[in-house]
Amino acid sequence: MNIHMVDTITPYKHIQQEVDEAVLEVVRSGQYINGPVVRRFADDLQRYLDVPHVIPCANGTDALQIALMALDLQPGDEVITPSFTYIATVEAIALLHLKPVFVEVDPHTFNMDPSQLEAAISPRTKVIVPVHLFGQTADMAPIMDIARKNGLYVIEDTAQAIGESYRFPNGHSMMAGTIGDIGCTSFYPSKNLGAFGDGGAIFTRNAALAEKLLMICNHGSTQKYYHESIGVNSRLDAIQAAVLGVKLKHLDAYNDARRAAAARYDQLLADVEEVQLPVKADFSRHVFHQYTLKVKSGRQERDALQAFLREKNIPSMVYYPVACHLQRAYLKFGYKQGDLSLSEALTEQVISLPMHTELSLEQQAYITQQLKQGLIAKTRIL
Ligand SMILES: *Cc1c(COP(=O)(O)O)cnc(C)c1O
User: Fold this and answer.
1) 10-248 has CATH 3.40.640.10 classification
2) Cα of 171 from ligand 1 centre, angstroms
3) How far is CA 200 from CA 45, 55, 154, 249, 261, in A?
4) CATH code 3.40.640.10 region(s) in the chain
């Protein structure tokens, strides 16, 4: 059985003719940067997300950096974010000479724990960056309440959760990335909406912020060769926009397929006591960018299980093996082992199984059967 961690080829094959035509249209048009195809994709995404402003850019990391640049922050200003995330979230903060202040995550959903936020706020705090990790939104209602009460901006890192929505306690739902002041996403090929290369986008409801974000993406310029601020060069290629425009129409179906695969895993693994299955919060639909288990007994068993699966030709990944606050490059912010014990424990327990739109029941039955074997084999050795 040939099992992949992600499958970017088969979804393309299903829509090959439409994608090929859209790409060729760009090739023949000669408009490779900006132009009507990029505009059309931004408009389509705007409608899909029900948000008034979508600014395409070069990748998700840029999106985060540009979002922070738009807020007129001063060096040393503090940005609260989880440590259990992909490094890009924290990198954008550090690059701008801002200070990341890490909060713990909920050990079940792996997302920012809102009850920890208030204690992390200081007079220098300016921004909260929740990350919708593995395809599930952070608990945005309390995060937004705390932000508003303390006059803080909220930037959502929704690179892993495009198409996900959050349900507020009053029943009203909003798309992930459109709840805070700014939302940032990535179209890296393996994300739920993946391009054939790099891509990203920034969302906002605030017209003034939208203008600023657009200007920063374009060398700080609104009028060619006149520069009002120091910006960057961050654009979405027209060819990528063409691909994304076709795939966007299928995003809900892709996310449904991921949810169906997750439900099959849940069922197949329901009787396995050694692992905690993904916990779906009731405010979330979950778009399962990853299907991530927690091996309760910790690193030794988790690593042994991964090695066992590898032997059976079953890929798996550890997202993430080191929490950001303990990454060597970030030690200068003064955190040490033990400061975020829940996040640190997760790095020793998590393992993500193959997750994509094309997983078959047969493959998942094999994966879960071997996973159970792996856990038994390990117990026998111990
Ligand atoms: C992928 C990812 C990013 C960065 O996106 P790129 O397009 O690769 O720059 C940022 N944050 C999170 C949580 C991600 O998963």
Assistant:
1) yes
2) 29
3) 12, 9, 18, 17, 26
4) 10-248
